[in-house]
């Protein structure tokens, strides 16, 4: 397995889990709408929906962390980072990954597993509401999310090492981005001619590319 295939395989795992977790938004929206209807229309609030909503949102937030890292979309203070050369960026990333990322995420996985197992052993239920739902299955999301982020972190470290050697950031496995939405909207517009559509798409692509270059870089493959 060459380096690019290795990186894209891990990117694919993170992307798949992130998209799978995204479906929790549908369940979360359904629960919130049901609770609003029952509370304000029927005057029959349901206590357990509050806990269930918290668990759905928390699971989405945690599991999507690896996907966000795979897309290089975590918040970055890049006012200095963006002006660095790729090799300098890679060297800085390696230091930060080994000093902060690996110890922190490894501790999250280790402590999260013990935390979840303790919850399982005592058959823990939520104490926010009376007769709250079980929460041990939710707490198992902590070590799972940490393991996924740790796996994606291995790919990011490999990217930094490759960039140090070559001076170029390796490619990422691309996903839907804002430019795809722009192209689709312009394609169905009745008020933009073909020439103006091409110019607008080209400008949007330039803006997106400039923003990407301010981050870690790497040519996105479609």
Order of helices and strands: HHHHHHHEHHE
Coarse shape: flat
- Distance between the ends: 20 Å
- Show unreliable segments: 216-222
Describe this structure in words.
Helices cover 73% and strands 2% of the residues. The longest helix has 36 residues, at 86-121. A two-stranded parallel ribbon has the order 1-2. The protein has helices spanning 3-22, 24-40, 47-70, 78-81, 86-121, 136-139, 141-166, 178-187, 194-214, and strands at residues 172-173, 220-221. With 222 residues, it is mainly alpha-helical. The protein contains nine helices and two strands, in the order αααααααβααβ.
Q: What's the structural blueprint in terms of helices and strands?
A:
Layout: H1 3-22, H2 24-40, H3 47-70, H4 78-81, H5 86-121, H6 136-139, H7 141-166, E1 172-173, H8 178-187, H9 194-214, E2 220-221
Parallel strand pairs: 1-2
Helix pairs in contact: 1-3, 1-7, 2-3, 3-7, 5-7, 8-9
Observed structural traits:
222 residues, mainly alpha, two-stranded parallel ribbon, 9 helices, 73% helix, flat
Write a short abstract of this structure.
This protein is mainly alpha-helical. The protein is built from nine helices and two strands; from the N terminus they run αααααααβααβ. It is flat.
């Amino acid at each position: 397995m060459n380096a690019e295939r290795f990186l894209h395989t891990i990117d694919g795992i993170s992307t798949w889990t992130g998209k799978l977790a995204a479906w929790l938004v549908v369940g979360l929206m359904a629960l919130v709408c049901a609770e609003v209807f029952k509370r304000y229309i029927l005057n029959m609030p349901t206590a357990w929906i509050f806990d269930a909503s918290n668990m759905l949102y928390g699971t989405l937030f945690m599991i999507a962390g690896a996907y966000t890292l795979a897309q290089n979309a975590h918040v970055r203070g890049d006012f200095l980072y963006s002006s660095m050369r790729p090799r300098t960026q890679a060297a800085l990333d390696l230091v930060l990954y080994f000093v902060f990322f690996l110890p922190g995420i490894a501790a999250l996985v280790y402590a999260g597993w013990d935390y979840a197992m303790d919850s399982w052993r005592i058959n823990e239920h939520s104490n926010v509401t009376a007769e709250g739902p079980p929460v041990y299955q939710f707490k198992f999301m902590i070590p799972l999310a940490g393991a996924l982020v740790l796996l994606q972190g291995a790919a990011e470290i490999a990217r930094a090492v490759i960039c140090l050697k070559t001076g170029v950031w390796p490619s990422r496995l691309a996903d839907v981005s804002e430019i795809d939405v722009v192209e689709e909207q312009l394609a169905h517009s009745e008020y933009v001619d073909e020439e103006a559509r091409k110019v607008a798409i080209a400008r949007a692509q330039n803006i997106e590319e400039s923003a990407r270059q301010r981050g870690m870089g790497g040519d996105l493959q479609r």
